[in-house]
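request received
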Amino acid sequence: MTLGKERALFMSNPSPADQVDLEVYRHSTAHILAQAVKRLFPDVKLAIGPAIENGFYYDFEKATPFTPEDLDKIEKEMKKIIGEDLPIVREEVSKEEAVRLFQDQGEKYKLELLEDIPDDVVSLYRQGEFVDLCRGPHLPSTGRVKAFKLLNVAGAYWRGDEKREMLQRIYGTAFPRESELEAYLKTLEEAARRDHRKLGKELDLFSLHEEAGAGLVYWHPKGATVRRIIEDFWRSEHIKRGYDIVYSPHIARRDLWEISGHWGWYRENMYSPIDIDGVEYLLKPMNCPFHILMYKSRTRSYRDLPIRWAELGTVYRYERSGVLHGLQRVRGFTQDDAHLFVRPDQLEDEIVGVIDLMQFMMKSFGYTDYLIELSVRDPRNKEKYAGSDEVWDLAESALVRALERVGLTYTRMEGEAKFYGPAIDVKVRDAIGRAWQGPTIQVDFNLPERFDLEYTGEDNAPHRPVMIHRTVLGSMERFFAGLIEHYAGAFPVWLAPVQVRILPIAERHINKAKEIQNDLTVAGLRVEIDLRNEKIGYKVRDAELQRIPYMLVIGDKEIENDEVSVRCRRRGDLGRMKPDEVKERILAEVASKSV
RNA sequence: GCCGACAUAGCUCAAUGGCAGAGCAGCGCAUUCGUAAUGCGCAGGUUAUGGGUUCAAGUCCCAUUGUCGGCUCCA
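response:
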């Protein structure tokens, strides 16, 4: 089981030395896999087999697909090879010699790899009858591998190119100790337990409908409640920070997308035009051109800048059918988008402002751990970028200074910038250590140019503003998926779709229960009442399974003393309290947005 | 889109090519109960959709749609 890319990274914080060792260890395990496959299926052709984030894989060309039974057999054979404790021997041979060797074996993929190696001497690794072209290094012998498991089979293109052969990839994982392997498999189980698709169904948060189209999300009342809370919070935090909230249409004439360039370079993600009175309209895949039109609706003074416009903008993008995934990868989604139109001299302060907002929002949703990547130009290849050299230098240094000002450590990604500007990407780590795509801040020199954006400067001359595209949550859909998994469905009280469920013990307690429900509802809490004719144990169990943070039990004792019994999700019975006391306690917890 | 697997009741899953079933949820009745499942009963299905093979198809074949694991891509 390998997880989607957005959340693939299980971070165990290994020391650099351990990491290297683990990589070697897994790479050697991949060779053992290949050896086992060759023993069982001699006709199979070998492609490549590296170590990856949480294990390893090996790609094979085989006429018929591997079955789960094959995987079992391969695992057994691998154990045998480990038992044989074959020495793994490095050999250096001339390229010609290697070509001859792999020609004899009919390993056409290895030959193709050899063609791309410029060196005259290449290294081979040999273990028993098996030999592979490989840079190494490797473990000294196959017996060093202690704990591994094959996980699944999947299709993969040779060299990731969809025009090339489709190979079969076997994924596996390996650890130096059995206990570590078990812990990793437990983590996979935990991830499955938290899967937002499963919880979305169980907690009645959202649905998708085959008959209505793939990748289109239906937010049920409970999911919609969480979204509404997030959106309200989002809006008020933006307004506090000097943003204005805007709205824009969902379609626009094709001409607009030609000016913006999307029709040129983003067309494969856009839906076919809609004909309206003989004019072609396109569903928006992005909000930026709309905000630009608003900018251009009048002349702008240097005094007007920075302009910060935010929109929860619903966009539609074509995604290939094979990539759709729950709420994480959909065809229609709402971005928490904003565009800042700034003077070059304002860039740094504005970036700091965005980083500050982003840190505040992440913390509010319980994410405290993140990795930051700064994507900059490829200094050796400056001509492929939009915007002048000076303005790039200015923007990159503004981003660097902003990051330094807020004291964040980051990784500089040389050459990773888009052609239109440098960017900051944030990956947040969730409760079980997986990294998700978080906020992104993208500087753009291209669209202001294309749309000929201007402001009048102090010098009464026209100047070009710089645009910043940024999102802090990404999209409501993907962010919600992440939140569900981060909290395993047990949202903090301020976000919980149902904050309190009242559990009367017997019918005679119903009136009192309703009274309390009404009181709490009027106070602004989201309260349900369980009137079913069931025992208290049943009602408690159901409320726990629904991850409801507070359960208030009402029976004879409570009515007698004008109290309620308070049970807290996963913490159990807190004892009896006055209704007002509970109310204040929960309201305070909501107000503090405690996570 | 491509490779592979899969699609049976609201959910989780059974059913050699031979009468479509269970548990949970739902509804009814009994019970009125003290912190993670009370008992009995009832109802629930064009087996994803459309074709085909067969005396007979949930089961075999083809196509479509969707889902799952990947490739690729991305908010």
